[in-house]
Structures are given as C-alpha cells and as structure tokens.
Amino acid sequence: MIKLKNLALITFCFLIVLSASAENYTGDFLTNGIGARALGLGGAYVSIADDATATYWNPAGIAGVPQKYQVCMMHATRRSGLGAFSYVSGIGKILPQLTLGLSWIRAGIDDIPIYYDVPAFDPEISADQRKNNPKYRPREEDFIPSGYLNDSENAFVLSLATRVAVSQSWWDNFGRDSIAPEFLFGVNVKGIFQNFNGVGELDEVTSVFSTYGSRGYGFDAGMLARLPDMNALFGLENAGGFAFGVNLQDISQTTLTWNTVPTLKESIPANFNIGLAYFTKLFFSRELILSYQWQERYGGQTHLGIEYQLSPPLALRIGYRDARLTSGIGIQLKQFRLDYALLIGDLVSTHFLSVLWNF
C-alpha cells in the first residue's frame, strides 16, 4: 500500500524532475499574460501598455495612464474547468511624475484527487484475471478519492514608473499641429511564491501532507517611447503614429528556493521583449492599432495583434500568439471597460474576462 503522504512526495519530486529535464518552464504561470485586451491582441502589448495591465507587459506604461487611479481585475478558466488564473492590479500617481502600481497574479489547481492501493490497477494482474475473477475488477469504492492535492502559485509585484515628455511649446516650433513625443521608464520588484500541499484520509484519521513550497524575488525593467504622428514628420493628416516598447523580465534571472531536504533551486531565465505599434484613424475616422512583439523566451516567439474601434464604445480584436489564434472584444461603459478574450489551444481553449475601472 502506498502511503498518502509518500504519494504526495513522489508526485512533487516528479514535477521537479520533469521541469529540470525539459525546457526551463520554471515560473511558467507568469508567461500566461494578463488582461483580456492584451491577450485578445495575441500578447503583442509591450509597445501599447496604456493601462493598469502594463505592470505585467511593460512597467513603463503605467506612467502614461492619464487617469489618477486605475484598477484592473481578471479571471480565466479553461473550457475543461481544470485550473484557474486570476489577476488584480491597481495604479496611482503618487507624485506628478511618478506612478506606483501594485499587482497580484495567481494560478492554481485545487482539489486534485488522489487514488492509491487499487488492486484492479495492479500491472501484475493479467487481463484474463480481471475478466474471470471479480475481486480484480474495479470496484465503486476504488473511484472514491483517498485525498486531495492543491497547487497554488502567486506573484506580488511592486511597480514604479516615470514620464519624460518633450515640451509642447518647443515641439510646436516645427510648425505642425501634432502631439509632442513622450518617453516612459519603469521597473518591477516582484516576489514569487509556490505551494504544493494536500489532505486526505488514511486509516480513518485525517492526515495533512507536508507543505512543499518555494519563494524567490526578481526584477523587471521597461521603456516605452510614443513617437510623434505623421503630421509632424511628413505633413500627412490623420496618418497616425508609432510607439516602441522594450521590457526585460527577470533581470539576472530569478531564483526560486524550495523548502525541501536537500534544498532545491530553480531559476527563471531572463526574457527580452521588444515591440512596435502603429496607431491611425485613417479608416472611417475610427482608431486602428497594429501591433508586433517578439520575445526571447522558449526559443523566440512572435506575437501579432489588430484592434479596430468599430464604434466609440466597441472594439474588436484579433491576434496571433505562438502559432495560436486569439480574439477578443472590448466595451467601454463610462469609467469602466469590459474585455473578453479567447485563446484557442491544441486541446482546450481558455476564456479571459477582465474589467478596468478609471477614477
């Protein structure tokens, strides 16, 4: 008979070995992305980053949010119902040129059932024995879990950003009516915590597993340049403008230390993101955004996104992310923006819902 506590330890060790033997997926829950608008655009958001979700995509972006305060909340579930992903962030201007952001990201799978000591599943029992001997056949009680495991992964992020803008009066000396360029800079300090535990019944006595967990701390840095529109450069009316963004995640790698004996350590590799976005109202005076992003992690991934403002409160989105299509919709309701995104997966699709509140 396999003891429930031992089974938890075996499962935990298997997950560690699996992550070490394959490509580095340490802290993989942080690569999912956050915010239904950004995800509907295929994650091509490092050069847009114009709301509270910038704490994830490019911390520099929070300095360019015009509202004094902004809060974003998101929840996502797979169509299969396996696992949940949540995000909450808030940003606010604490000084005229300094913006503060706080974020919480959580991914988890709760109530993972455990089964052990099931004779019918013994590999040494032949198919003929199962067929001819009732005691070797699955019983109803074999499908009653002996316990449950819970996996919880959390990240807490502190963001700081500042904005440097070219003087509008100086820019007007060029003799063309356009918005002056601005340059945004930001940093993240983050703490990452993972826990793996469970409870179950063994010999009619409730047994609590040991809690295995890890923790680590990391840093991100970003830059966002919003460039003048074509009117200033070439004298073209309503031709739009560009934004260029860079985000370096997990500078010098982020090390997670597990409370195991012996102590295990894993490192999240640094990830370089670079992107370019084009904004225009050339088509029917509605805003169109074309966005491109490349990230270094996992051998390099390409992200593409298109957003079109169908009407003042309604925006449609489509994207491409690592050979998968994404789509989304956004609705502006006074100080609230509701966003939905669908990420089409190989086996299951994931739905994302988020709400943004300006005040």
Q: State the end-to-end CA separation.
A: 59 Å
What is the number of E strands? 17
**Major pleated sheet:** 14 strands, antiparallel, barrel
Walk across the major sheet and give the strand order. 1-2-3-4-5-7-8-11-12-13-14-15-16-17
Mean pLDDT, all residues: 83
- What class do helices, strands and sheet pairing give? mainly beta
Q: Compute the CA-based radius of gyration.
A: 25 Å
The CATH class is: Mainly Beta
Q: Which band does the percent of strand residues land in?
A: over 45%
Low-confidence stretches: 1-22, 202-206
- In total, the number of domains comes to 1
Give the overall form. Answer: elongated
Number of helices: 6
What CATH architecture would you give?
A: Beta Barrel
CATH homologous superfamily - what is it?
monomeric porin ompg
SSE order: HHHEEEHEHEEEHEEEEEEEEEE
Q: Name the helicity range.
A: 10-25%
